[in-house]
Amino acid sequence: MKTLWRVTLGVLTGIVTTVFILGKTPTSPRMLGASVVRAEEESCSVASLHGTYAIHAQGTIVGQLPPPFPAPPFPFGEAGIVKLDGAGLVLSGKSTVNLGGVVLQPTATGSYTVNSDCTGTITIKSSAGFVLHDSIVVTDRGRRTVEVQTDPFAVITRTLEKIED
């Protein structure tokens, strides 16, 4: 019991000392490591996204789509490539999409925005007749994005990973 009390007292002493010296609690973002501080210092723009990216997406279609699609809900999967121009345009894209067992290979064009805090949007016009909207976060200095589709008929997450400049 004395050992447990000494360890507890030692931990509390360390926390109090840290707060006294730094004026911050140990859970302060500056104490979590360099990655948090670096993220605060990075800035993004549409120029952050340029080149060819691999697409991976999966999720669930929750709203009714026109025939030949099944009644919702049903699974969604996608793999493909997309070319971004660094000026806010999706120059071209092609993918294989599985919508509840219905397989399509649409092409796409569109546009995107990127804010200085590395958040943004992307709008895709698909040859399958859909206009899709994603909210995005740019990571790894533009080498990757994480996305969530914001259309009410789908719950889909996407990632883009740079494969070529």
What is this structure, in a nutshell?
With 165 residues, the chain is an alpha+beta fold. 18% of the residues lie in helices and 48% in strands. The protein has helices spanning 2-22, 34-41; strands at residues 50-61, 74-85, 89-99, 102-104, 107-114, 119-126, 131-139, 144-149, 154-164.
Describe this structure in words.
With 165 residues, the chain is of the alpha+beta class. It folds into two domains: 2-41; 46-164, Lipocalin. Helix content is 18%, strand content 48%. The chain has two helices and nine strands. A hairpin with a 3-residue loop joins β2 and β3 (89-99). The radius of gyration is 22 Å and the shape is globular.
CATH class of the largest domain: Mainly Beta
Q: Indicate how many domains the architecture comprises.
A: 2
For the report, how would you describe the main beta sheet? Answer: 8 strands, antiparallel, barrel
Number of helices: 2
Strand order of the largest sheet: 1-2-3-5-6-7-8-9
Taken in chain order, the helices and strands follow as HHEEEEEEEEE
* Name of the CATH architecture of the largest domain: Beta Barrel
Which range does the strand content fall in? Answer: over 45%
